[in-house]
Amino acid sequence: MFKRAHELHTPDPYFSGVAGFVGSGLERLHDDMSRMELPDGVPDAVRRCHDALRHTYIYSYYSYDLLTVAAAQTFPCLELALRERLGSQFVGRVDRKGKVRPPPMLDELLKAARAQNLISADVEGLNHLRNMFAHGTDAVLNPPMFLIPFQLVTETITELFASTSSSCKRT
Length: 171
Prior knowledge:
Helices cover 51% and strands 0% of the residues. It has helices at 26-34, 44-59, 65-86, 106-115, 123-134, 143-160. The radius of gyration is 18 Å and the shape is elongated. Helix 3 packs across helix 4 (106-115).
């Protein structure tokens, strides 16, 4: 439902107690995201993407549909992090005929990170979650349904950059 301008600061019915989520007030949503901080070694582009998701989750209090947007963008954020960390390894690769291969997708990046012991996450599980959100679902998301994959992605990004040098610290 598209809100009128004067209604923009009122909670979405899912959060207002009229329907939906019990105990998911604005402060609770903010607390959820306060626990999802990335360490300093994470590149700024990844941090901005991650912070945008955290804000989108919080602002879903005013528009439930933003929760779906946040869920849909969680795995592209992970893919960005993987490209930032591993992308240079795939530059210039060619197929058997000498044709330049396209950049790797999430599945290949996850497998490479796992093979290099940069992450401990179950790559098949992550890829399954990504496909669920990327290809649509009729599930009505609630905050916990978003938080579980987002926490896993946050932990994976943290782990991915744990071994990077201090030269990657944000400026």
